[in-house]
Write a structure and sequence with these properties.
The protein has 629 residues and is an alpha/beta fold. Helix content is 39%, strand content 14%. It has 25 helices and 19 strands.
Amino acid sequence: MNRNEIGSPSWKSVMVTRHLPEKLSGLETLCKNLWWCWNESAKNLFKSIDPEAWKACGENPIALLDRVSLKQFKKLSSDVEFLGQLKAVKDEFDEYMGLKAKRTNPSVAYFCMEYGLDTSLKIYSGGLGILAGDYLKETSDMNVNLVAVGLFYRYGYFTQILSAQGAQVSKYDAQDFMKTPAEPVRDKDGNWVTISIAFPGRNISARLWLVNVGRTELYLLDTDYEDNLQEDREVTYHLYGGDWENRLKQELLLGIGGVRALRALGLNPTIYHYNEGHAAFAGLERLRECMQSGKLSFAESMELIRASGLFTTHTPVPAGHDAFSEDLIGKYLGNQLPSIGIDWGTLMSLGKINPDDHDEKFSMSVLAANMSQNVNGVSMLHGKVSRDIFANMYPGYLPEELYISYVTNGVHYPTWAARDWKKIHARVFGPEFASHHYDKSCFEGIYAIPDKEVWDTRKALKGELINAIKDRFSDPQACAHYTPSQIVTIKERLRDDVLTIGFARRFATYKRATLLFSDLDRLAEIVNNPTRPVQFIFAGKAHPADGAGQDLIKQIIEISKQDRFLGRIVFVPGYDITLAKRLVQGVDVWLNNPTRPLEASGTSGEKAAMNGVMHFSVLDGWWVEGYKP
């Protein structure tokens, strides 16, 4: 050893893992696959280990097992009833996973910036992520041969805190990756699999993590480690964080890096699905592969790429599509054009409607559309809106002649249906319903459910919601937007025998959360009716950069503090998947006020409807098709 090295610290990264008794080894397998989060038996199994700890750790089984003592593990190892329950759940899981080998459909690669799968994995912000998460769960249940690609954010999206004045405060907490279901991807020699992409004057590398979503594999790219410069480590810090340059870096990593990740894993899918324009650079990387092969011309390469590309757009207004200046695109892609095999003009023609207009920005949605055979909106009405938005790309064609269709967004039944409803549905619809809930014929027994059973179930779920809200209001720090005396009054006035109307979603101006407050005097009479009172429950986040959306939250809170509305209009902070489930399962009426046609699809009403909740909405998004007068 060099004398200068004596006494100098030598730092190395280590990963500490738990070791469970052999009889409990099945718990390790179950907690590392998100199948547990939509399987009631699996959730009950983890909860039975320690109900209080289960609640305290946010219903995260990995965090739960880290908290359990060796003494408690030994006790569970000799608990015959628990071991029997564990065996039953593990057998069910093994049978479910065993069908993966029977896949026969074409392989699909699915790219998205965010995935809302469970609160234990904070890589989502709103509707796009929740939809993508449900999509992966459904592909797992339907045994579709799909692999997904995304980014692993160190800080994810923000946790919502409200000030005493009702102002939204964005709190970012670093995720402990070891308490998530993600695991490092290793090669045959045990080395962490990494990929790299070119940035100006340097390469940035990303390591791969695997999240098992039932039978579906989700690979996440992470740049926050010592091989990268600090500014490059920050690329995967925040979902939708930073400036437009950082957004471009993230989208280059998702698209180009995502394709390279698939190749590093030995995967060459048949179909590439770009869920929003964020992923469009995947098409550019595929073009580079085709051109570098030396076997195909540019036209032939584009024909191959388009034939196997699908683009889903979720945005109903032109301004909502990501677009970057020529200078920024040139900074990151200019030097890469020779390796792709195209010139600057060709690149601009792929991302612009008028490539000669230097003031027009390079549109990710235009790039995605040019790289795809089919483009779809996310509802019938949004399909029409999308044809109008993209019409300028196809001069000489009428909007109805374009290859832009629609596939209306759906939701994952096992995730969003309440436990009580699942039991009723299994009994009335038959044993096949759990795996065929997308089949219309399965619903034919709906009218066989007695009215009293429907009402009793609704009452029980509303009671659980009210209790959960009161429980949240027991933490003064989480509810600083109300004074202690106001919280006491709210908890006294919130009742489970009062008509309860819910409104919870991202707070954007077009969703018109405050439309209800155009006549406060009339509203006060309605909510305080002595024989038929009404209570409104609001929840949701506004983007940190959306000042107008944050003002809506503040306005609702200010109104809810008035004596005549206290306990009748309530804003519940900390909106997340857990609270969303409670609300769509527990309210009586689900309220939706978007400015038509700006709600591309919306799915919260679908979740409410499957829980026996009445949907009250403007005819926009999915409701245009769902409403039957």
